[in-house]
Amino acid sequence: VNPPIPERSSREPALPENMDVAEIPWNSRRRGCDLGSMRLLVFTFVALASFAALNPLQEASRHLSAVPARDRLAKRSPSTTRTPLRSSRAEEGTVMTPKRLKISKKEPISSDFQDDDEDDDDIDDDIDDDEDEDDDDDDFYQDMSEFDDTPVRFKDVDGDRILFKLGKKGQLSEYVNGVLEVKTVKQLSYDSKSGTVYDECGNFVVPKAYRKLILQDIVRLTNLAYPPVKLYGFDRYVKEEAIEDDIPVLNHDQIQAAIKNEQERIKNATKAVEGMQKLVGKWKKQLGDEEKDRQGDALPTWQKIHLMASIKRRKKDIDNLESDIKAMEKARSYMEETVTLYKLDLNETLAGPKVPEISECRTVVVAPPKDGNWPMNPLHTGHAERSETPNSFTVTIAAPGMTEEDVRVSIKDNTLLIKAAIQQILDGGSCIQTIDREFSLPINADAAKVKASFSGGNLVVEIPKLNALPPNEEKSIPIAVHKKESQAGDANKGGKK
């Protein structure tokens, strides 16, 4: 039922004569009421109210974006602020140091920005999204409570520093022994005095989630180290345990078992390298096929884009696999060197005590009696000295206590014979001294001109040489020239012609 129609004022336009009152809309029949104007007023009021409410948040957003992330973290309450990993504790050597701390969406905002929680969460979301875009390649970020700073102890055989290269996510990528400069994001070094592995800031601090994997990588890499890394116990290889200074020596059976183990590892490494090389060849073939397909004109654009992404992934996988092959070949060379060291140790265990060799037939050198420190016995004789000059041979024999009458010198069968005998009566007995020596004369000795003399207890026999020149005399010898028979024969043939 329609309500009663109000009286029309003089300002309102008159209705058409052929229009019924019931056909007029209700909102047009109300006095002074326009629905469009009402909606415009409501919308304007809501917009002004929203703008007045958002103005403080916009000022806060501008202020927050102008403040560095480090200052933003400082404005948080102490109960909710996370300790930055690049803090002053790094000087003490107990903290790992990623570049900066990532703002968490779940952390409450301090009282300075708690006017509107929902709007602040949106601002933090925008900030996090911007930082995520810039930090895709940065290191991972962790809370300090998620790190484990338990030290790990190792011992190197030669006392060198052991260095490890860590990747951006904490995994070990390479082992270096004895090199002090490593260009990497993080660096672990080994102190031979304390036996602790350190990072670039001090102690060895790793995330709890990655600790087991990182220690397994360290054990694997140090097992391939050269010189080898020893641990406490009957094993060359390092483990996660305390190491003492006294390392027992491996016995024969243990060395043989270690050699067998290393040879098995070398065999497995060879099989792994061959398998990876086959896989690389297969992937390269697939890569070539995909590149040919992408260059064809029959494929649609979306499929070419898909092939381009697949080719990029394939090239990356091939590069990674080739680097793994190089690492495995390097590890295999370390294993072979370790086997060589084990064999050297095995030879040392097999070798007995070294005793100098003594020949069954040997010559004992006796010093002349006159060079001794004992008193000269006048009856001791027999020492002989031989010498040679350009014109003669000389033999000198010591004969103390004798005279020329006691000595006899003769030549027989080109042999010089010297014999002598003397007897002396002493207190409580007697002493007999004899000389019986024979010397073979050289071919050029003139036996007919041998001379003997006795002086100062020494017998001197001089044997001149045959055809010897007088002292300090030089004789010129002519050189005869003989013609060769071959030259004479050629001359005869030439005469016949």
UniProtKB/TrEMBL annotation:
Region of interest (Disordered), residue spans: 67-144, 477-497
Superkingdom in the source lineage: Eukaryota
Biological process, per Gene Ontology: protein refolding; response to heat
Bias type Acidic residues, positions: 113-144
Bias type Basic and acidic residues, positions: 477-487
Coiled coil: 252-279, 311-338
InterPro entries: A-crystallin/Hsp20_dom, Alpha-crystallin/sHSP_animal, HSP20-like_chaperone
Gene3D superfamilies membership: 2.60.40.790
Keywords of this entry: Coiled coil
Database matches in CDD domains: ACD_sHsps_p23-like (cd00298)
GO-annotated cellular components: cytoplasm; nucleus
GO MF annotation, one: unfolded protein binding
PROSITE patterns in alphabetical order: SHSP
Bias (Low complexity): 76-87
Domain SHSP: 374-482
Family affiliation: Belongs to the small heat shock protein (HSP20) family.
UniProt xrefs under PANTHER family: HEAT SHOCK PROTEIN HSP-12.2-RELATED, RE23625P
Stated name of the protein: SHSP domain-containing protein
Organism: Amorphochlora amoebiformis
